Amino acid sequence: MLQERIADLAKFVEPDRVRKEVYTDAAIFELEMQRIHEKYWIYCGHESQVPKAGDYYTVQVGRQPMLLVRGKDKKVHVLYNRCPHRGNMICGDRHGNTGEFFRCSYHAWTFQHDGKLRSIPMMESGYAGTRYGKDNPDCSMKRAARVESYRGFVFASLAADGPTLKEFLGESKIAFDDMCDRAPGGEVEVVPNCFRVIQHSNWKIFLENQLDALHPSVVHQSTGRAAHEVEKDIAKKTGKAPLSYHMLSAFATVTIDKWDNFQTLNYPHGHCILTGYMGLRPKDPDTLAYEKVMHKAYGKERTEEILGVNIHHVLIYPGLSVQSPLQQLRAVRPLGVDKTLTEIWHFRLKGAPEPIYRRSLAYYNLVNSPSTLINADDLENFWKCQQGLGSDGGDWVSFGRFHGRDLEKDGVVETGPGMGTSEAPMRNQMKAWAQYMGGAR
Amino acid sequence: MSKLETQHAVEQFLYCQADLLDAKKWQHWIDLFTPDGVYWMPADPADKHWDGVPAIFAEDHNLRTVRMKRVLHPDAWSQRPLWATNHVVSNVVIDKAAKNGDVVARSRFHMMELRRDDVRHFAGQYTHHLKKTKSGYRIKLQRVDMTNAQAAYDYVLQVWV
User: Fold this and answer.
1) Which of A106, A331, A105, A80 is nearest to A199 (CA)?
2) Which of A182, A187, A179 is nearest to A294 (CA)?
3) I want to staple A332 with a disulfide (CB 3.0 to 4.6 A). Which of A58, A188, A319, A345 is the partner?
4) Domain residues for B125?
C-alpha cells in the first residue's frame, strides 16, 4: 500500500493544487522526514547559544534528537544525542554545560565534545580482544554528516552529499545578511530565551501561512482593530503611540485589497521572500540615534542600503521563518503528521542602542510569545485546516490564486504588481516538495 | 488593621481577582489595577524587573485594553470555541505590610482550562504588590511565576492567568 502511494507521489502535486494526503498521511510524513528534513540543511541554533566549551543545546533535526555543542577547539559540533554503547540518550536536559566531556549516565562511557570516544570503565580488561575500543568509529557518538554556519547561524545536514549550505540558501541568505548588517557591529547575539509553541497541524501549513498575504486582514482583524483603537487613544493623550501598536494595528489598517501591493519572490528549494516595509524608520530620537551609530560604522551610503532593504520576512524551506528586520526567527520542528513545534528566538544587534533592541523585543513579546495576540488565531486556523483535510469532504487543496500570471525568470518566480496575495509561494513550495520527494538533489 | 484583618482583606481581594478572570469580566479585572499597574508573567523566574526582557506577558493598562478589545471582537476566531477556566488561589502569605496599608503578598494558584474537549493545567506563584486606596486594594504589580513558564505551550495563552 505504502509502496503504491510512494510510486504515485508525483500525482499528488499539480501546479495549482495538492492532494490532501500530503498533509494527513503518516507514511508520507515519514518519507518527508527521510527525504527532506534529514537530508537538507536544517537550522540547529546560533553560535552565541553555546559560547563556552561544553555548552550544549538539544535540537531535533527531522526525527533525530541532536546536540549542538561547543568544543574545546572553539568549533561548534552537531552530534546525535545517543550513546553508541546501548543507545542511551546522552543529554537529558534541554541545554546546559557538559563540562570537560560527555558522560553517559548508564555505563559511564565518556566522549569528547566532538563525539570521539574518550574512555570506557575498565576498557582494557573488558574489551581486550573485542572489536570495541577507541579505534572503532562505531564507539564514538555519531556526528551530523555535515555542519556549516552562515554569519553565526548553524545548520546541519544529515546527508553526506548535497549542495553546500551557501548553495542551498541561495538568495534566502539575505535573511541573515539583513539581520546582521543592521547591527553596527555586523553581528547578532542570541537573547537567551526560547518560546516554544506546539501547533496541532502539519508543518507545511505553518510554512505556507508565513507567505500568505491574504490572511492577515482576515485572521488578525480582531487584534488589528483593538490595537488601532488604543493606538489612537494613546496618540490623543501623548502625541505618539509606540511603534509596536502600529505593527499590530497594521493588521486592520492595511485592508485586504492593500495586501496586493506586497510582493513575494520565490526561489528554488522552496525558499521565499515577502517584501513589505515595516515602518521601522520613523524620525523619532531613538531611530535617529541608531542611524547615527550606523553612519559611523558603515558610512552614509551603505547605511541607506542596509536600512532600505525591503523585507517583511524570509522563509527558508523546510524549517525556518526569519523576520530579519526585527531580528527574530521561528524554527519548525515537525513532531508528527499533525503536530509541529515552533521554537522562537530573538537576537540583539551588536552595537545598536538599547531602544532598538526594545522595539523588536516588544514585537517578540506581543506576537511571538506564548501569549501572542496574533498567532492565537493562526493556530486556531491551522488546527481547523488539519481537521478539514482529514475529512472526505474533498481531495484537493487549491493554490489557484493568480495562477498562470507569475513572472518567472532564471528559476525565480516574482509575483507581478498588484498580485501580492498570489498563492505563488505555496505553488513554489509544493514544486520544491515534489522535487525533494522525488529524490532531486 | 490588625494582621488578621489584613490577611483576610488580601485573601478576599485575591479571590476576587481570580473570580473576575474565571467569569471573563475583563473590564472589571482591568479596573483592579492602578493606572500604572503592570501584569507580568516572566519567561525566566530569575528576572527581577518586567521591562526590557523577554516576557510571556508584560502588559500595562494600554496593552491590557488591547487584549480585552481583541478577545471581545466578533472575529476573534480563537475565541469561538467555548472555553472556561477555574482558578484556585491559596497559601496566601503577607510578605510586607507598610504603614500606609500597601501590601506585598505571595500566593499559589492552580488554573484548569477547558477548551473544546481539551483540558490544560497551569500552576504557579502570584506576587501581588497592592496599593491601599479608598475603594480597597489596587494592583501595582501582579507577577505570575508559572511553574510551566518554560515548558512548551500546547496552543497558546489567550488571556491572563
Assistant:
1) A331
2) A182
3) A319
4) 3-146
Does any CB of chain B come closer than 8 Å to the CB of residue A247? Answer: no
Nearest by CB to A222, from B44, B70, B81: name it: B70
Q: Over the stretch A378-407, which tens digit does the pLDDT of each residue have? A: 999 999 999 999 999 999 999 999 999 988
Examine the pLDDT at B38 and tell me if it is beyond 90.
Answer: yes
Give the ipTM of the model, two decimals please.
0.95
Domain of residue B99, CATH code:
3.10.450.50
pLDDT tens digits, A167-204? 999 999 999 999 999 999 999 999 999 999 999 999 99
Task: Please answer yes or no on whether B158 and A371 come within 8 Å at the CB atom.
Answer: yes
In the block, residue with C-alpha cell 481537521: A387
DSSP A66-84: EEEEE-TTS-EEEEES--T
The answer to whether B66 contacts A373, with C-beta atoms less than 8 Å apart, is yes
Our count of domains for chain B comes to 1
Tell me the three cell numbers of residue A272.
521565499
Distance CA B92, CA B5 (A): 13
- Given this model, what pLDDT does residue A438 score? 87
- Which pLDDT score, from 0 to 100, does residue A259 have? 87
Partners of A149 in the β-ladder: A154
User: What single-letter DSSP state applies at residue B152?
Assistant: P
Say whether residue B66 is in contact with chain A using an 8 A CB cutoff. Answer: yes
B38–chain A Cβ distance below 8 A for any pair: no
Could you tell me the sign of the dihedral formed by the alpha carbons of A374, A376, A380, A385, in that order?
A: positive
- Complete domains list, chain A, with CATH: 43-150 (2.102.10.10), 172-213+262-437 (3.90.380.10)
d(CA A372, CA B57): 9
- CA A117-A123-A127 angle, to 5 degrees, is 105
pTM for the model stands at 0.95
The three cell numbers of residue A330 are: 521561528
Model pLDDT, residue A7: 63
Angle, vertex CA B36, rays to CA B30 and CA B39, nearest 5? 55
Q: How far, in Å, CA of A196 to CA of B152, rounded?
A: 5
Residue A255 has what pLDDT? 86
In this complex, is the C-beta atom of B148 within 8 Å of any C-beta atom belonging to chain A? no
Which residues of chain A fall below pLDDT 70? 1-7, 277, 439-441
First vs last C-alpha separation in chain A: 26
In this prediction, residue A47 carries a pLDDT of 98
pLDDT at position A16 is 95
Give first-to-last CA distance, chain B, whole Å.
Answer: 30
The CA-based angle B103-B109-B110, given to 5 degrees, is 170
